[in-house]
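does this look right to u?? manganese (II) ion version
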Amino acid sequence: GIKIVTIGGGSSYTPELIEGFIKRIKELPVREIWLVDIEEGKEKLEIVGNLAKRMVEKAGIDCKVYLTLDRREAIKDADFVTTQFRVGLLDARIKDERIPFENGLLGQETNGAGGMFKAFRTIPVILDIVKDIKELAPDAWLINFTNPAGIVTEAVLNYGNFDKVVGLCNIPVHTQMDCASLYEKDISEFKFQFAGLNHFVWYKVWDKKGNELTSDLWDKRQDKENLGVKNIVSINYDYDQIKNLGMLPCDYHRYYYLQDEMLAEGLKSYEENGTRGEIVKRVEAELFELYKDVNLKEKPKQLEQRGGAYYSDAACELISAIYNDKGIIMAVNTRNKGAIVDLPYNSAVEISSYITANGPKPITFGKFPNAGQRGYIQLMKAMEELTVEAAVTGNYYTALQAFTTNPLVPGTTIGRKVLNELLDAHEKYLPQF
Ligand code: NAD
Ligand code: G6P
Ligand code: MN
Ligand code: MN
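got this back:
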């Protein structure tokens, strides 16, 4: 049987993960699920863990759920370790968002200053987890959702020197679901090719016969409501700019292509409702009230209010594809290995890949259609590399360089100010600095 370990088990997304395993129990014989958390998250772990136990019991499957604060005990002999922890919990996220906004910059948990700080807090922890895996479960796969998922994958590959890692995001999944719903067809009717970085990925689409639909899909998407993930306002892109790009952008490209509009919208929302982290705190409180109900034995509908809906299901699909050597195509964060000619061989990229028992095999993509994409993505990758190096070394000047390289930090003077304020605010979680 398979042993799964989920670090950050107290996350409100855990019921989706459990549902995903229950659904696939025939093809994926999971016998143990270990939910791991820390002292700060003990109460969340109890509540969500007890719901997980009720779900498994109701499903009547041969699987046991364990709750623990002992990470090493959990990791021992694991087959798959999934990571969905948030260092400093939502209070830290709120600081990542508030401090940039207070300085007139975008406050977002994976982009700009906030995203770089989430990386600074997360990378030392994930590298520790990698050490534990190498020692206690050397054959295990690490499936990471912890954001910024692409930068975290970059760190594990190139500083953890650990290759059995796959980074996962729900954006490609959501994008495919949106496409299918616009054509009123099943996802299986389409073929997608994703290439880029996490939260900076572009895609093309074809029908089953091989006719390209990319441009047609762009027309279909115009002015449609309810597309995209819950945490991003869907301001329309400039129609012609994208039409001439050769590929379609993801939801997160708005923070770059529509910088001014997204900043204005973000500041307005910040003034009216506080940061997204504060909104999520309210959603989470509501979810945990539901989770406490001993009569609840399934994933509640309300979880769809979270931007990350469907990512846990994608994780279960990925795990099953590895376990069963399925060879299906999924867009994941993995080592480039030359698939995207415009990026270094060893970089983590988000790319459509065949999922096999030996992990993802990235599908050759080649070059981006134009220099606009090439230039932008090379800058973003450089920023990611600097962010990882700063997270590992704690070097202030590397962090400053990462800041000034980030397109959402408009210059060194303001960059230094925001960097200093965030370093102060997060001191407790940044022992390396
Ligand atoms: P959360 O705030 O509920 O945190 C999850 C749990 O992590 C908490 O119970 C917390 O106590 C625990 N934790 C914190 N530090 C830990 C540590 N060192 N070891 C073990 N556990 C620890 O977070 P959430 O909103 O459920 O999100 C979880 C993570 O998943 C975040 O990092 C978030 O950015 C990420 N996420 C990723 C995607 C994606 O597309 N990849 C989608 C949604 C969320
Ligand atoms: C997404 C992303 C995640 C992101 C999350 C935020 O769409 O792909 O990486 O962190 O949703 O959701 P939340 O509900 O926490 O704001
Ligand atoms: Mn994501
Ligand atoms: Mn949607």
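The radius of gyration is 21 Å. idk if thats expected tbh
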